Amino acid sequence: MAEVLNSDGRFWAVDKLILAYLAGVGALVAVYWNRLDEAPELLALHVGSAIAIVLASTRDSRAIWYFRHWYPLPLVAFCYREMAILIPAVRGAATDQWLADLDFSIWHANPTVWLERVQTPVITGFLQLVYTLFVPAVLLVPWLLWRKRRFADFRYCAFLISLGFLASYVGYILVPARGPRFLLDHLQHSPLQGGWVVQAMRTTLDRLESAHYDCFPSGHGELTIIAWWISRQISKWLSRVYLLYTLCIIFATVYLRYHYTVDLLAGALLAAALIAVGPVMFRKLTRREDSIDARGGNGR
């Protein structure tokens, strides 16, 4: 994994990545200001986040050191919430029918409908749990690197995961879609059966995700592939566990009617592209080696 590199200025690579995202989405908010009821709040959040990042880059303390390492992961995950506000204003029409037609042209069937023949409460319960654990599973990898005090690897891991989240959001804006559980619901012969626990998990996820257009590419597929790739740097045993988890969550996204299969293909291709270009981007955004500086190399 790439060594941690630090810029010869104040900002780390992940800072520059997130500041670019905040500026880009802030510009979208400004352009579509009249269509967004929440425009002032969104812009204030983006400006406030940018100010916090800039100020942190000028400070030097133990708390700031922890903040600068950890803030990117919850921040980029939280940015997901604003897609439900932005996409209807920026794009309007969804592309679900186009994605469903692509799926049908590949399989000569609607995968979510076809999978009803293997549906059981046990499988549904297991796959819903796998799907629900997505964010903890992705964040476990950087946490394990942190526990091992591999701060250089942690910094790169946080950069790559942040890049994965933000790249998926760009895809959501370019190809907005809500998923087969909405478009193809009238074709399903029966609802998913898994008991009250499954229903509680699905209801909670629906409440958290709101009316999102978050299908293309599949962020679940993309980010679990990235997490599996990074887990190879920790141990062979862990990488096998993550490979199995990745295969399960890819199947779960279609079985549970959250995604079209073309979403998964796009997510896998995006993950492969980011894994390939991530080290290059990281180096381009930095200029000189940093051993996590004398105070941070082994923790503060």
Task: Characterize the structure shown.
With 300 residues, the chain is mainly α. It has one domain (5-289). Helices cover 69% and strands 1% of the residues. The chain is built from 16 helices and 2 strands. A two-stranded antiparallel sheet has the order 1-2. Helix 8 (121-132) runs parallel beside helix 12 and helix 8 (121-132) packs across helix 14 (236-255). The longest helix has 24 residues, at 151-174.
Short description:
Helices cover 69% and strands 1% of the residues. It is mainly alpha-helical and 300 residues long. The longest helix has 24 residues, at 151-174.
Compute the gyration radius: what is it?
20 Å
- Cα distance spanning the termini: 22 Å
Number of domains: 1
Main sheet specs: 2 strands, antiparallel
SS elements, strand count: 2
Question: Which key terms come to mind for this protein?
Answer:
300 residues; mainly alpha; two-stranded antiparallel ribbon; disordered N terminus; disordered C terminus
